[in-house]
Amino acid sequence: MFIGEYTYNLDDKNRIAVPTKFREFFNSGLVITKGLDNCLFVYTKKEWQKLVDRLANLPISQAKSRAFSRLMLAGAMDLGLDKQGRIVLPDYLKKFAGLNKQVVLAGLYNRLEVWDAKKWEKYQVVSEKDTTDMAEGLVDLGI
């Protein structure tokens, strides 16, 4: 399970460290893809396969299903950790997420999200103002 926020620097070779306590989950590799809200999603191979299975069952006759599948699948890349526990971000993913020097890895249970630190800060300011509305909306989901 991934939880917490971790701030790292993206080096000149587009390498970013994965938090030490999460590295064991990525021993067999990982998949990184374009996420929502202009961040990147990082999945273990097992969690990625669960998502792919769900995407494969979406109706291709619906434009939104096709678009979401394209975002997630065509934007994905198989990666592995180097000896220092880092991944090398492809340029197209770095550009998509607008990543600069400082990045935040946010743990969200079954995935990590990679954010530009300034964008993450702005996102938090906006979302934290709406916590009451968010909480009330979750009642409909049984939470």
- CATH architectural type: 3-Layer(aba) Sandwich
Strand order of the largest sheet: 1-7-8-4-3-5
Share in helix: 25-40%
- Could you say which overall geometry the principal axes of the C-alpha atoms support? globular
Instruction: Characterize the biggest β-sheet.
Output: 6 strands, antiparallel
What percentage of the residues does DSSP assign to strands (E)? 25-35%
Low-confidence parts, pLDDT < 50 over ≥5 residues? none
List how many beta strands DSSP finds.
8
Total of DSSP H or I helical runs spanning 4+ residues: 5
Question: Overall pLDDT, averaged?
Answer: 93
Order of helices and strands: EEEEHHEEHEEHH
Distance between the termini: 19 Å
Please, what is the CATH homologous superfamily?
Transcriptional regulator MraZ domain
Q: What's the CATH C level?
A: Alpha Beta
CATH topology-level fold name:
Chemotaxis protein chec
Q: What is the radius of gyration?
A: 16 Å
Which structural class is indicated by helix and strand composition?
Answer: alpha+beta
Counting structural domains, the number is: 1
Word description of this protein:
The strands form 2 sheets. The protein has a 6-stranded antiparallel β-sheet with strand order 1-7-8-4-3-5, sandwiched between helices. The chain is globular, with a radius of gyration of 16 Å. The chain has a single domain, classed as Transcriptional regulator MraZ domain (Chemotaxis protein chec, 3-Layer(aba) Sandwich), CATH 3.40.1550.20. 24% of the residues are buried. The two termini are 19 Å apart. It is of the alpha+beta class and 143 residues long.
